Amino acid sequence: MKKALSQQHGFNAISLMPTNLYGPGDNFDLRHSHVLPALLRKFVEAKESGAPEVTIWAVDRRAASHAKRRRINILEASRRSRRFL
Question: Which of 2, 22, 59, 78 supports an S-S bond with 13, CB 3.0-4.6 Å?
């Protein structure tokens, strides 16, 4: 769509793809949510129950050593993306 707008109307467009978001209204289900909300839920439940430790999911250490992901709050993403409108 961006390419078509540019070709047909000379409209210079960008595509924002906010990923790894969390915030109000998020899905905190341990089986079906994204990683950060599920981790937050695990830590909150551990604190509330007084658990001495939290078990998190296993990770392939070879892949994890190269992966770097940033998380951003949905409200902050919304605030920052307004400048692109």
Answer: 2
**43 neighbors 53 (Cβ within 8 angstroms):** no
Terminal-to-terminal C-alpha distance of the chain: 16
Q: pTM to 2 decimals?
A: 0.51
Q: Which residues pair with 22 in a beta bridge?
A: 73
22: tokens are 């969390």
Q: What are phi and psi of 39, to 5 degrees?
A: -65, -45
- Cα→Cα distances 45→5, 53, 62, Å: 49, 11, 30
